[in-house]
Amino acid sequence: MELYKNKLIAYSLGNFCTYGDISITGVKGVAPVLKVELDDHGNFGSGQIYSFKQEPPGYSVSDRTGQAVSLTPK
Question: Could you tell me the residue ranges of all domains in the chain?
């Protein structure tokens, strides 16, 4: 993620839900969810990252270990 002219750019957040033959082992099963507040002009105000993980056969659950947060570059 980065701020460009006070606009948030969030790259490659990954797959949130998958099903079937897609591997969700290890970090491939970790998914960040962003909650972002923007002003009326789209400028970044604040944000929070929530960590989820995918469980077979393909649904997401809250990840209390926070892997998505810890894998996000500071």
Answer: 2-71
